[in-house]
Amino acid sequence: MNNNQNQCDIVQDLLPLYYDHACSLASCQLVEQHLTDCPKCRNTYEQLANNTINTVIKQESKGVLARHAQKERNAAFKAGVVIAGILLLPIIITFIVSMANGGGLGVFLVVTASMMLVAALTVIPLISSQKRIIKCILCSIAALLLIFFFVDAMNGGGEFLYWSIPTLFGLSVVFFPFIIRNITLPPVLSDKKALITMIWDTLWLYLTIFIVCYRSGMAEMKTGSIVAFVLMLGVWLIFLTIRYLSVNSFIKAGISTFLCSIWMIFSNDICTFLIEHKRQLTISHVNFSNWSTDISFNANVYVIILIAGGLISACLIGIGIIKMKKR
Ligand SMILES: [Zn+2]
């Protein structure tokens, strides 16, 4: 038995060499002889052969896939360069026409910026291998700003910020979450991406109000800021509830629903008080037999929102508490 085990050990040591046809004739014969007699070692040899084949196949297929991906990238890159070349045509033509007409380079610059916008959406994703969406978004925004800038310059100037800040705010609300999700932040900030997004959007909102109201005067600016403050306060409370309150999602949904209904019902009255110093409580004008005046119509709707919102949030919070206790 011991002798057999010894031989098994020797053969198993030799198996990889035997598989690669790298052992001496004598060892080869020893292994072959042993494999015919010993099912255990035969099994080991079969496993070795299978694994080796699998590894080889895996490496081969990885290689094939990598080559294929490289080929596709090369093809996409070439397509990108071709499109970039095509986009240069209108730029060159308008340059020549502008020079010939002697009417300045305004149209040429606008066309150049427009072609850059097209390039941002077509060429950039084709020639870049990673972070395509972010590059696409950032280049498009840059090109759009250039268009604004040149169009504004052609029309006498002075309106660039008025057009670009609100546009950037709108684009940022949609695209900033994508961008921040795909970039790597320092460790201190890496778990604060949602908070950064909220701060960013709030700042842009105020910047937009500032830019839009700037021309209309201080009174407009004050009104805009107050309305934005009251509405954003609600948005921030919902955000903080969802992001930082350590309760289950049912309770969070309940609290958010409740906050939403409260803000819908009272924000108008609060804004009126802050702006016009007029005390009013719209909901106190409730009268379900009168839907014809604005104030009672609003009050009736508010009461319905209050009841529905209250019921839904109570249900959600109730379910949440039951689930929490079951744990
Ligand atoms: Zn054996």
Automatic annotation (TrEMBL):
Family annotation (Pfam families): zf-HC2
GO molecular function: zinc ion binding
Residue spans crossing the bilayer: 75-97, 103-124, 136-154, 160-183, 195-217, 223-242, 254-275, 295-322
Domain Putative zinc-finger: 8-42
Keyword list, A-Z: Membrane, Metal-binding, Transmembrane, Transmembrane helix, Zinc, Zinc-finger
Protein name, per record: Zinc-finger
